[in-house]
Amino acid sequence: MSGSRKLFFCVLLLLSFAGSTGYASAALPAAGKVNETPWVMDLSAMPSQWQAENTRARIIIFRLQRNHDNYALLPLNVFINKDYHASLYPEHQAVGVSVCPGAASLVVTPGNRKHGIVGLAQGTNAVTPALQAGKTYFYQIAMDESGNAVGRWVDDAQAKAVLASVKVQAHTLSRVEGHQECPSASYMLNVSALFMFDKYNVEGFLPGATDNIYRLARKINADYQSINKIVVVGHADPLGDWQRNQFVSEQRARTVMNQLMLAGIPASKLSARGVGSTTLAITDCNKYKKRDDVIGCNQPNRRVEVEVYGVKNAEQSKDGKATDVAFDSSVTK
Predict the structure, then answer these.
(1) CB 24 within 8 A of CB 75
(2) Residue 182, helix vs strand vs coil
(3) Rounded to an integer, what is the distance from CA 40 to the centroid of its chain?
(4) Which of 25, 33, 200, 312 is most buried per CB count within 10 Å?
């Protein structure tokens, strides 16, 4: 290989690596200075890129920006369920992601500001709607005049009209797993119906908590002809220290897992994990001033989800989609 060809491939490798980090901030100008279009590698959109799979939901995130905006050249980094997905520049760019049905965490942060890179922890969590399998959702993002990331959900007709002239961004490497197994059903247990406030073990159970969990176990056993695994996921509200929230979410998930085991679910099928307050169902509770009001508002964030992976009985399925309804007031699909 000639020296010039070696140099070309070395430069290409470095550009690919910079793009895969998702930030590539070294090549960006300081905030408020618009000099030239940054390096991008965009693709023309095809209809298949906007279509969802039968068993998964699809989110299309797109960015439109006026060229004279102060922050026009700064990327917006997109995180899905805490994993980096892509960085969108303002030249009418879009990117798609395939996710499991149900609510997901969507965080958008500016990639470079006056004080350097802004990462996941500094972003605002925009919880998705309850995503349905086979359906596509559209989310528009931009930067406001202060350099903050803003976004809104857009209806299909409006989004598709815009996307007809939007390029698909393809120069960063997503960390989001687009083909992971999705649960056949997910049941939510409201923590406020199980535990006393800030409690996480059996001693902190409220009256009726054990009965609720046992009824859920009976329903799962009745609804499935085979079960591959059951994952119990604990969630906490954002109040207090994040380390404490992570601990409480893990312990609540373990407590529910152990109760499901006692109720007859094989231990070999069960696992538990906590996600702290990283995946909130409600994000605007800071609008309240009184602590009691804030605690009450955050009730949906204090939850335990039971994800079931397996094959449902024929009468529980229709056209490949689960048909479960609410189990009771504290357990919903």
Answers:
(1) yes
(2) coil
(3) 26
(4) 200
Q: Which helix (H) or strand (E) holds 187?
A: strand 185-190
Asked if 138 contacts 62 with a C-beta cutoff of 8 angstroms, the reply is yes
E-state strands within 1-70: 42-44, 57-63
Pairing label, strands 167-169, 93-99: parallel
Helices (H), 152-265: 156-163, 209-223, 242-262
Residue 87 phi/psi, 5-degree rounding, is: -125, 120
CA distances in angstroms from 66 to 13, 25, 60, 166, listed in the order given: 31, 21, 20, 14
Calpha distance 87→156 (Å, rounded): 23
Angle between helix 242-262 and 209-223 (nearest 10): 60
Measured CA distances, 170 to 43, 85, 94, 96 (Å): 7, 11, 9, 10
pLDDT per residue of the chain (333 residues) written in tens, 0 to 9: 555 444 433 433 333 333 333 333 333 334 444 344 444 445 566 666 677 877 788 999 998 766 545 655 678 888 887 788 888 877 678 888 888 887 788 888 887 655 444 555 556 667 788 888 889 999 998 887 777 788 899 998 888 888 887 878 766 677 776 666 788 888 989 888 898 878 899 999 989 999 999 999 999 999 998 999 999 999 988 888 889 999 999 999 999 999 999 999 999 999 999 988 877 778 788 889 898 898 888 888 889 999 999 888 876 554 333 333 334 433 433
Pair 274, 250: CB distance under 8 Å: yes
Decide the pairing of beta strands 185-190 and 303-312.
antiparallel
| Strands 106-110 vs 331-332: parallel, antiparallel or unpaired | unpaired
106: left (phi over 0), alpha (psi -120 to 50) or beta: beta
Which is nearest to 223 in space by CA: 189, 275, 186?
186
**Two structure tokens written together for 266:** 């094989």
Q: Quick one: pLDDT at residue 182? A: 83
Q: Which helix (H) or strand (E) holds 299?
A: none
